[in-house]
Amino acid sequence: MSTSVSPAQLAPTDASTADSACGSTPVPRRENLADLVDTYGSTVQLPSTPWLVRLELKQPRHDVRSLSEGTRLLKRLTDIVVSVVMLVVLAPVMAVVALLVRLTSPGPVIFRQERVGLNLRRPRTDRRQRTDLVPPGNEERRTKNSDRRQESGYGQPFVLYKFRTMRNDAERNGAQFAQKGDPRVTSVGRFLRKTRLDELPQLWNVLKGEMSLVGPRPERPVFIEELSREIPDYLQRLGLKPGLTGVAQVVNGYDNDIESFRRKVAFDLLYLQNCCFRNDVKILLRTIRVVLTGSGAL
Question: How far apart are the first and last CA of the chain?
Fold first, then answer.
């Protein structure tokens, strides 16, 4: 039985006889929905009743499916071919960017930072603890990296490469999210962020197999610890290799507050549930548009 009620009817309604409810809610970011449908329109069915959202009367749970061996192999082959081609073709551009960074700001050209990648252990969600990790099943085969992953409690750590866009002392007061108009960002760095050129060195991460061209963006361990407490199912993002770009990047832009991170997680989980080569191509094409227009940059 389904029951539709207005706010005025909530009090007298007998909730014990209803197993679902429909409620009116505003849609303040409907342009995101349009972008999402454009990206996934061929693979996602979106039954819609204007201004109504159906809510199940139970705690939501995301079930992130594993990629098939064929999809995984095709994704890796694409990563290798595209990253090699782009590293060769864009080598002159990267050389110019490196020179600009060197001449305009003291400090290293390449910024290195530890990020968390693929979690080889499948996340689980239960009612007592919304996000948890399943212990590894084979203790004898654990490598040094696996030990490190066990210590972090999240996923495989790796060193991410970027062109430096902030002052060399940007984190003298500790780790913090970048904000719009962040004074720590250099003048050249602002241009690099707007055009996403600062991310080009991550093609090396893709070639090494630490990242993929498309996937959830990798995050720092210190931020993962904080965000996993604030956002249900956040750790589910680690069920797939992190990406150079993703749905959240072409739709949501940069994240600078908890609400933008919540939206990013929703987009990432949708990608994980619908990951396929065709969608990766769509996302890469959308990324080119974002790079050319500079949309969503801080």
Answer: 48
